[in-house]
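Thread: quick sanity check before group meeting

JM: Hey all, I'm pulling together slides for Thursday and realized we never actually wrote out the predicted structure for the chain we discussed last week. Dropping the sequence here so it's in one place. If anyone has concerns about the input, flag it before I start.
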Amino acid sequence: MGITEFEQKPLLFYTCYSDQDLFAVLKTNLTSIEIDSSSSSITFEQSQFGKYGECSYCCLVRSEERTDHSDVSIQKRLELIGDYAPCIFYFELSKQEKSVNKYHLIFNDEFFLKFNGIEIIDITNVTIDRFELNRQNRNCLKNLVYLSLENNYLSMIDMDFQYLNQLIYLKLARNPFESLPLNCLSGKSLQTVELFELGRLMDIDPNARFSSELKSLTIKESILTTLPQTLGTDAKTKLTQLTLNGVAWWGVDGISVNEVVKYDSFEKKFLPFLDSQELTNIYRMYDEDANGVLSFSEINLMNAHIYRYIPRLRPTNAKIVRSFDLYCL
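JM (edit): ok, ran it. Output follows.
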């Protein structure tokens, strides 16, 4: 397939396949797809397509594409995309481990006014400083269908989700939210919600509304004690999967008798639930021999008593069982 430019002064020619069905048909019937534009300044890199039909700019923010860009910083990728931002429909960034020293993302009005065609946002182990959008710019996310934010040091999302009419899937995981984003459970197209390790989220607004299209709600490693009664009325028609569980602090299969837990491992485990001061105090409290690590017995003691010192990690009317009471029983 060839593409010819007839203008005497051709403009720089950019391409982007956002129609996946079209690309699948072309790929089936053609042996290759090539851009023939010798009069323009297109480079070899710019003329390449990803396996899903994306151009080189789209591949800069696709987790599965273009491994040769893996060492390019996030900031540099955004600079390379430049004016091409409105054509980006996937925005996926994922790191194996989160590093607080790397470039921090800011999702705000300025960002979304540029990237106004996004359909999927999937960010894992990348620090996000802000995630916000004013109502007057709500149309910037009119195409968003999938939102997943995991392990981003994000404490709040400042936007009203009632305007995300196309949103089908929402996942919020391992972030220190103290409250859920406004109307994030009530989108008219919302079908799947996953909330994992939101350890500072004590409750959900009892007046929160749920989508009538909701099919699956998963809340894992949670310190929630109740769910709004509106869940039973709003989502009763299509809700078929409800998964709830609390926090198994270090897990049944956590550490063996001869293992020890250093502070960095401890911090990684409990960061979604405790602030830095609480982390330090609890670690020191249970490191009885002050050797800088927690042993098997010290971890077990902490698991059994951690709720005693952090009131939000237990129901307000929970009784603290004393050893004397256990002896009497």
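AS: nice. The longest strand covers residues 90-94. The two ends are 82 Å apart (CA to CA).
JM: adding both to the slides.
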